[in-house]
Specification:
Elements: H1 2-17, H2 28-44, H3 48-68, H4 74-92, H5 98-116, H6 127-143, H7 146-170, H8 173-188, H9 190-195, H10 201-213, H11 223-259
Helix pairs in contact: 1-7, 2-3, 2-5, 3-4, 4-5, 5-7, 6-7, 6-10, 7-8, 8-10
Length: 260
């Protein structure tokens, strides 16, 4: 229930935060971003046929942009394609419940925003609901409340599934894989988490990983770039030291010559 409430709150934020428009003056990626948002708003209103048409328009435009410009990496193309297919299914599968439909189109919306945003992508706004629900998971585990634990963990996994693809686009592969592996471990061995005291430490470690994953500033510098910075800085320091030493020796020689 809490996961549904947080998703509703987050969708309201999306409605207020987005100001993208698909006019002729905007860039192709901005137009794609606007289309993804429009599809989400229509899905929320249960206008599934209209949302499907917008997704078809998105597909045509995305293909055109991909052919004309080498804007997207292979990973981005793969993630967008999967998210788009899931969103289309959400608008056409009449047996799917409305909440799941919204979740899938929201996932697609966040993926497109992650590609178009250079700073503060929308998926990072999910930090508070993710951590709030995880607090419920942790509390239920520590209290040994099996029913509450499974319910809270399922809610957490549901929210995590919504932001997983967009997170993957922005977070380094090493950090993402570490977080994803730990979450899958806890899901797979959920019964052990309840019965084994040492296993509960996994929850505390995961909480730390979750808190750090939303801070994009600490992670996104390429290690090779750090090597260039360090090596270049070292060369500059050595050069300046050598120049200073030569200057010192020259001044010392001048003083000796004057004393003679």
């Amino acid at each position: 229930m809490k996961s549904k409430l947080w998703i509703v709150i987050f969708l309201c934020f999306l409605l207020l935060a987005t100001n993208a428009s698909a006019n002729d003056d905007s860039s192709p990626i901005d137009q794609l971003n606007a289309l993804s948002d429009e599809a989400l708003q229509l899905t929320k209103s249960q206008r599934y046929e209209d949302a499907k048409k917008i997704l078809e328009t998105f597909s045509d435009k995305f293909s055109s942009v991909t052919i004309k410009e080498s804007t997207f990496t292979m990973d981005e193309l793969r993630i967008v394609t999967i998210a788009h297919n899931e969103a289309v299914e959400a608008t056409t599968n009449v047996s799917m419940n409305p909440d799941e439909r919204i979740n899938r189109v929201t996932k697609f919306r966040l993926v497109i925003d992650a590609i178009s945003s250079t700073k503060h992508p929308l998926w990072t706004k999910m930090e508070e609901p993710i951590l709030a629900i995880f607090d419920d998971v942790k509390e239920a585990a520590f209290n040994g409340d099996q029913e509450a634990f499974h319910k809270s963990l399922n809610s957490f996994l549901s929210l995590y599934e919504v932001i997983n693809p967009s997170m993957k686009l922005d977070v380094s592969p090493e950090r993402f894989q570490k977080l994803d592996t730990r979450i899958n471990f806890i899901d797979h061995y959920r019964q052990d988490i309840l019965t084994q005291q040492n296993s509960m430490k996994e929850l505390l470690i995961l909480e730390t990983d979750l808190q750090s994953i939303f801070d994009l500033e600490t992670d996104e510098t390429d290690p090779s770039l750090w090597w260039v910075i360090i090596s270049t800085g070292s060369i500059i320091i050595v050069t300046l030291s050598y120049v200073g030493w030569r200057k010192y020796v020259g001044e010392k020689e001048k003083r000796k010559n004057r004393s003679r």
